[in-house]
């Protein structure tokens, strides 16, 4: 449960900081788009990594620090996940913090916001 709360807090903090510093006066711009990401290094030698999949879906990964150095592999895994999301149309399914552990041994939390 602590991992779930940590991932939720990361999403909240990222959205809050993006809202404050992301856009100036233009209300139509997206504060967190598909090219944005957030990284938090933990004392436990792990990294929280957040990327937006689409407007309503964000992916939070908990990665060991030594594996976080393989940024190309992380980007590849993310693109695979986006491809799966498009093929299976996850945007029509309500994922409410479901834990998934199947993609290349990495742990994923899927969060669907509304």
TrEMBL record:
One of its GO terms (biological process) is positive regulation of TORC1 signaling. InterPro entries: Gtr1_RagA. Transmembrane segments: none annotated. It comes from the Eukaryota. One of its GO terms (molecular function) is GTP binding. GO terms for cellular component: Gtr1-Gtr2 GTPase complex; lysosome; nucleus. Keywords: GTP-binding, Nucleotide-binding. Belongs to the GTR/RAG GTP-binding protein family. This is Uncharacterized protein. It comes from Onchocerca flexuosa. The lineage of its organism: Eukaryota, Metazoa, Ecdysozoa, Nematoda, Chromadorea.
């Amino acid at each position: 449960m602590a991992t779930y709360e940590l991932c939720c807090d990361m999403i909240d903090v990222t959205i809050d900081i993006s809202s404050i510093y992301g856009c100036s006066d233009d209300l139509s711009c997206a504060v967190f788009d598909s090219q944005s990401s957030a990284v938090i290094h933990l004392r436990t030698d792990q990294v929280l990594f957040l990327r937006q999949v689409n407007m309503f879906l964000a992916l939070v990964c908990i990665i060991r620090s030594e594996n976080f150095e393989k940024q190309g592999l992380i980007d590849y895994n993310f693109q695979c996940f986006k491809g799966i999301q498009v093929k299976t149309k996850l945007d029509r399914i309500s994922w409410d913090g479901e834990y998934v552990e199947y993609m290349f041994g990495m742990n994923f939390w899927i969060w669907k916001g509304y």
